[in-house]
């Protein structure tokens, strides 16, 4: 996927929403290339279990780089339906391919309200530029 | 000139020390308050990095008798004994908290400057070896990371961070002298021949930080909200077996 096709949280997670076979809306979530560049040298990730209920703005996992542990925040409300467990052993793929193989979790939306708070790519780029200055 | 809070805390148990740092982080996210805290340990204590497995302590017999606590921050295990321990909590909006390296650079760089007051030539670690996580030594002070503070090739200060929405916690240790619970690690006095009292080093360091950040320090105390939150975090997190043995 291209970043132009995605929505972004202010906390640097990306989201792609698409219906599954039953028509339920599934949000695929990862970390933006901008955030991954700042994190550098990832060493550990803790991922949620399938079935966990998550709320927009609340942590769903953690990641460690250069001795800094950072929370990963859910951009949406729903339940985790898939977890990219293989990432724990191939963390380099997060930075190498953040918007495809770097997906972290898939969340079945229980409420779409939080989507309205997400940024499109131009707005997210603007936020990143402001953070750099 | 901005005024930041300075906290000088008496020796305490490991679970209380970690709970206070976590409480300061949580409150900083809500209030935007910057705090620098110097603290100490009631008895030699082993702290594990957030992602470390507790089973790793079996690889370090000298610290086996020490009580153990799991930190909210990353990196390797530390035997907290003859050291100066600090935490610095900042709102995420601060230019020093924007990314991990900015805060490491500020803290370690000002420590290097402060050590110069005693004629100690300290350096920041540059181009550390990149090892797979599984190959890293158990002890933080046997690892090398960028911005570690080295004297004569020995690591005498290490630090780690917890980054959350709204605020960042950086904390770490300066090894003042060798501990019987980590006899393989030389401290400042062994590597430099200079014995620096903890309080004097803390005072010189805070002065360099104030100069670097163009702020003044305001001596303060934990407020009631922070104390109540820290008590809850001892009960629910840092004092619980579930947390300590989670990995």
What labels describe this entry?
heterodimer; A: 133 residues; alpha+beta; OB fold (Dihydrolipoamide Acetyltransferase, E2P); six-stranded antiparallel beta sheet; 3 helices; 9 strands; 18% helix; globular; B: 247 residues; BirA Bifunctional Protein, domain 2; eight-stranded mixed beta sheet; three-stranded mixed beta sheet; 6 helices; 11 strands; 30% helix
What does this protein look like?
The complex is a heterodimer of chains A (133) and B (247). In chain A, a hairpin with a 2-residue loop joins strand 6 and strand 7. Chain A has 133 residues and is of the alpha+beta class. Chain A has a single domain, classed as OB fold (Dihydrolipoamide Acetyltransferase, E2P), CATH 2.40.50. Chain A is globular, with a radius of gyration of 14 Å. The longest helix of chain A has 12 residues. Chain B is an alpha/beta fold and 247 residues long. Chain B has one domain: BirA Bifunctional Protein, domain 2, CATH 3.30.930.10. Helix content of chain B is 30%, strand content 26%. Chain B has an eight-stranded mixed beta sheet with strand order 7-8-9-10-6-2-1-11, with helices on both faces. In chain B, strands 4-3-5 form a three-stranded mixed beta sheet, with helices on one face. In chain B, strand 9 and strand 10 form a beta hairpin. The longest helix of chain B has 18 residues. The mean pLDDT of chain B is 95. The interface between A and B is medium-sized, with 20 and 23 residues. Strand 7 of chain A pairs parallel with strand 9 of chain B, so a sheet runs across the interface.
């Amino acid at each position: 996927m291209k970043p132009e096709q995605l929505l972004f949280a202010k906390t640097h997670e990306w989201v792609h929403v698409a219906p599954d076979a039953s028509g339920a809306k599934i949000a695929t979530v990862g970390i933006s290339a901008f955030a991954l560049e700042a994190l550098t040298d990832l060493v550990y990730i803790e991922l949620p279990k399938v079935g966990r209920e998550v709320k927009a703005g609340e942590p769903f996992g953690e990641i460690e780089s250069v001795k800094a542990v950072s929370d990963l925040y859910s951009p949406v409300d729903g339940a985790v339906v898939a977890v990219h467990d293989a990432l724990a052993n191939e963390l380099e793929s997060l930075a190498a391919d953040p918007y495809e193989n770097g997906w972290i979790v898939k969340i079945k939306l229980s409420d779409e309200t939080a989507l309205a708070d997400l940024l499109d790519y131009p707005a997210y780029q603007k936020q990143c530029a402001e953070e750099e200055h | 000139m901005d005024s930041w809070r300075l906290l000088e805390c008496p020796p305490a148990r490991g679970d209380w020390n970690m709970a206070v740092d976590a409480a300061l982080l949580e409150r900083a996210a809500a209030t935007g308050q910057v705090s620098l805290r110097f603290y100490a340990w009631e008895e030699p204590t082993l702290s594990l990095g957030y992602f470390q497995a507790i089973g790793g302590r079996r690889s370090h017999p000298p610290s086996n008798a020490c009580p153990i606590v799991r930190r909210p921050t990353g990196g390797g295990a530390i035997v907290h004994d003859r050291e100066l321990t600090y935490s610095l909590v900042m709102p995420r909006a601060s230019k020093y908290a924007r990314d991990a390296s900015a805060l490491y650079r500020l803290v370690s760089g000002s420590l290097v400057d402060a050590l110069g007051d005693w004629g100690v030539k300290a350096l920041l670690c540059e181009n550390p070896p990149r090892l797979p996580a599984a190959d890293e030594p158990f002890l933080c002070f046997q690892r090398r990371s960028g911005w570690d503070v080295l004297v004569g090739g020995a690591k005498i200060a290490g630090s780690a961070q917890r980054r959350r929405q709204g605020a960042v916690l950086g904390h770490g240790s300066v090894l003042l002298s060798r501990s019987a619970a980590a006899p393989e690690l030389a401290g400042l006095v062994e590597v430099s021949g200079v014995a620096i009292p903890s309080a004097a080093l803390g005072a010189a360091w805070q002065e360099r930080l104030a100069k670097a950040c163009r702020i003044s320090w305001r001596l303060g105390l934990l407020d009631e909200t922070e104390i109540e939150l820290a008590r809850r975090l001892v009960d629910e997190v840092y004092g619980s077996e579930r947390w300590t043995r989670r990995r």
